[in-house]
From TrEMBL:
Source species taxonomy: Eukaryota, Metazoa, Spiralia, Lophotrochozoa, Mollusca
TM region positions: 47-72, 84-103, 109-129, 141-162, 182-205, 217-237, 249-267, 301-323, 330-351, 384-403, 423-443
Cellular localisation: Mitochondrion membrane
Membrane topology: Multi-pass membrane protein
Protein known as: NADH-ubiquinone oxidoreductase chain 4
Catalyzed reaction equations: a ubiquinone + NADH + 5 H(+)(in) = a ubiquinol + NAD(+) + 4 H(+)(out)
Native source species: Luteuthis dentatus
Domain NADH:quinone oxidoreductase/Mrp antiporter transmembrane: 106-390
Any one of the GO BP annotations: ATP synthesis coupled electron transport
One GO term describing the cellular component: mitochondrial membrane
Enzyme class of the recorded protein, top EC level: translocase
Entry function: Core subunit of the mitochondrial membrane respiratory chain NADH dehydrogenase (Complex I) which catalyzes electron transfer from NADH through the respiratory chain, using ubiquinone as an electron acceptor. Essential for the catalytic activity and assembly of complex I.
Pfam assignment, any one: Proton_antipo_M
Molecular function as annotated in GO: NADH dehydrogenase (ubiquinone) activity; NADH dehydrogenase activity; ubiquinone binding
Entry EC number(s): 7.1.1.2
Length: 449
C-alpha cells in the first residue's frame, strides 16, 4: 500500500530534476519490493490488495523495467525535451496500474486494471511513436485486446452473481459449484490468451512493437505480455480448471505457433519485428507449460515470464541503440560492428544466447522445465520441441552474425561510440538474469499450499 501511495505522490510532484527523481525512486522501489520474495507462501493481505509469491516476482519486474524505461528514453525524450514531464508521468501511471493488477483480490478490480493498462500504452505509442503507421498499430492493439476481454467481463459478472462474491479466495478455498459451462470459462481465458499473445491472435504485437518508442517496446515485451500469463495462471489455479477439454487444442496451437514464429524470425529483416516474433514463440511455450498442469510446467512458466521480460526488454534496448546511431532497423544495413565497438558486441552475444536459452542464464532452466512438462504431457511433442530449440538458436545466431560480422557500411565510421549510461542500461538487464540463478529454489514454494 505504501508503494502505491508513493507512486501517487511521485505523479503529483513538480521539480526541475523530476526525471532523475522518478528514475531513482523506481529503482529504489524495485529494491524495496525484494522483501516480498521472502514472504510466506500464503501471501500478505492489505484491504483489497494481496501479494503472494506468484505476484511478488512480477511486481519486482514491473518496477525494474519501469526504471529502465526512463533510463533508455533519456536521449530520445529528456535530451531532446520531447514532452519530458508528460512522458515520465505516463510511465509512472502505467507502472502503478500494472502493479495494482498484480495485487488485486477482487475480480472486478482485477478486470478494471487489466483494461486500464491499455490506455497509457496507447498514449506512449501514439505520442512518441516513430511513423504515421502508429495510428494503425494503436487501433490494432486496442481492438484485439478490448474485443477479447468482453467475454471475461461477462464471465466475471456471472460468477459474482452465482456466488454473491467477487473475491478470488472465495473460489480458491471454498468448494463453490460453478454452474457455468466449461466453454464459457474457456471464453474467459480467451482474454489472457490474446494478451499473451496466442499464435493466430498475435497480429497486434509486431505492429505495436515496430511503431512504439523504446519505452513502449520495453513495457510491451517486459510487462504487458506477463499480464496474460499471470491472468491465465491465476484463473486456472483459482477455479481449479484441471479438466478442460480444450487444453489440448490450446497446447497444440501454442507449440505450432512457436515453430511458425521461429521460421518467421529467420526471414525477418526488421530487427524490432524479429525480437517481437520471438516473444510470441517464448510466451506460447510458457502457455503450453501452464496448460500441461504439471508442477514443473508452472514453475518453468513463471521463470520464463521473469527471464523473458528482462531478456526481450534488453534486446529492444540494444536494437534501439543501433537505431539511434544508424537511423535504420534493417539487418541488411548493419554489419561489421565488431570492428568498431567490441564491448557492445559482447553484450549482443550475451543477450542473444540468453534469448535462445543457453547457459549461464536462467532462460536455460525455464526452457528445460517447460520442455519436461510438455514431454510428460505427450511424447509426441518431442519433435516440435526439437524444431523449436534448433530454430531458436538459428534466428538468434543469424541476428548476431548479421549485425557484428561482415564489412563496414560506408555511412558509419569509427565515430560510432557508446556512453556509460548505455552500458549501464544493458548491464542492468543482464545482471538480474545471472543473479537469479542463486535463488532458483524460490520457485519450489509457489504452489505448495
Amino acid at each position: 500500500m505504501g508503494l502505491v501511495f508513493s507512486l501517487i505522490l511521485l505523479l503529483m510532484m513538480k521539480s526541475s530534476v523530476l526525471w532523475e527523481i522518478r528514475l531513482w525512486c523506481m529503482m529504489m522501489f524495485s529494491l524495496l519490493s525484494l522483501k516480498y520474495l521472502s514472504g510466506e507462501s500464503w501471501g500478505m493481505y492489505n484491504y483489497y490488495m494481496y501479494i503472494d509469491i506468484l505476484s511478488s516476482i512480477l511486481v519486482l519486474l514491473s518496477f525494474w523495467i519501469s526504471g529502465l524505461m526512463l533510463l533508455a528514453s533519456y536521449k530520445s525524450v529528456k535530451y531532446n525535451n520531447n514532452k519530458m514531464v508528460l512522458f515520465s508521468s505516463i510511465v509512472l501511471m502505467l507502472c502503478m496500474l500494472i502493479i495494482l493488477f498484480f495485487m488485486m483480490t477482487s475480480l472486478l478490480l482485477f478486470y478494471l486494471f487489466f483494461e486500464m493498462s491499455l490506455l497509457p500504452t496507447i498514449m506512449l505509442i501514439l505520442g512518441w511513436g516513430y511513423q504515421p503507421e502508429r495510428l494503425q498499430a494503436g487501433l490494432y492493439f486496442m481492438l484485439y485486446t478490448v474485443f477479447a476481454s468482453l467475454p471475461l467481463l461477462l464471465g466475471i459478472l456471472m460468477v459474482g452473481m452465482i456466488n454473491s462474491s467477487y473475491m478470488m479466495d472465495m473460489f480458491k478455498y471454498n468448494s463453490f459449484s460453478l454452474n457455468m459451462s466449461f466453454l464459457w470459462l474457456g471464453m474467459m481465458l480467451f482474454a489472457f490468451l490474446v494478451k499473451l499473445p496466442l499464435y493466430s491472435m498475435h497480429l497486434w504485437l509486431p505492429k505495436a512493437h515496430v511503431e512504439a518508442p523504446i519505452a513502449g517496446s520495453m513495457v510491451l515485451a517486459g510487462v504487458l505480455l506477463k499480464l496474460g500469463g499471470y491472468g491465465l495462471m491465476r484463473f486456472l489455479y483459482m477455479f481449479s480448471l484441471m479438466n478442460l477439454y480444450f487444453d489440448e487444442l490450446i497446447m497444440v496451437i501454442c507449440l505450432w505457433g512457436g515453430v511458425m514464429t521461429s521460421m518467421i524470425c529467420v526471414g525477418q529483416s526488421d530487427i524490432k519485428s524479429l525480437i517481437a516474433y520471438s516473444s510470441i514463440g517464448h510466451m506460447g511455450m510458457m502457455a503450453g507449460g501452464v496448460m500441461s498442469k504439471f508442477m514443473c510446467g508452472w514453475e518453468g512458466g513463471i521463470l520464463m515470464m521473469f527471464s523473458h521480460g528482462l531478456c526481450s526488454s534488453g534486446l529492444f534496448c540494444m536494437g534501439n541503440l543501433l537505431y539511434e546511431k544508424i537511423n535504420s532497423r534493417s539487418l541488411f544495413l548493419y554489419g561489421g560492428l565488431l570492428n568498431i565497438n567490441s564491448i557492445t558486441s559482447l553484450f549482443w552475444f550475451m543477450m542473444c544466447i540468453s534469448n535462445m536459452g543457453a547457459p549461464p542464464f536462467i532462460n536455460l532452466i525455464s526452457e528445460i522445465m517447460l520442455f519436461m512438462s510438455l514431454y510428460m504431457y505427450s511424447w509426441l511433442f518431442i519433435m516440435i520441441i526439437l524444431i523449436m530449440v534448433f530454430m531458436g538458436g538459428l534466428y538468434n545466431l543469424i541476428m548476431y552474425v548479421s549485425i557484428q560480422f561482415g564489412s563496414n557500411m560506408s555511412f558509419y565510421n569509427a565515430m560510432y561510440s557508446e556512453n556509460s549510461s548505455e552500458y549501464l542500461l544493458i548491464l542492468l538487464h543482464l545482471i538480474p538474469l545471472l543473479l537469479f540463478m542463486v535463488n532458483i529454489s524460490y520457485l519450489t514454494k509457489i504452489f505448495m499450499i
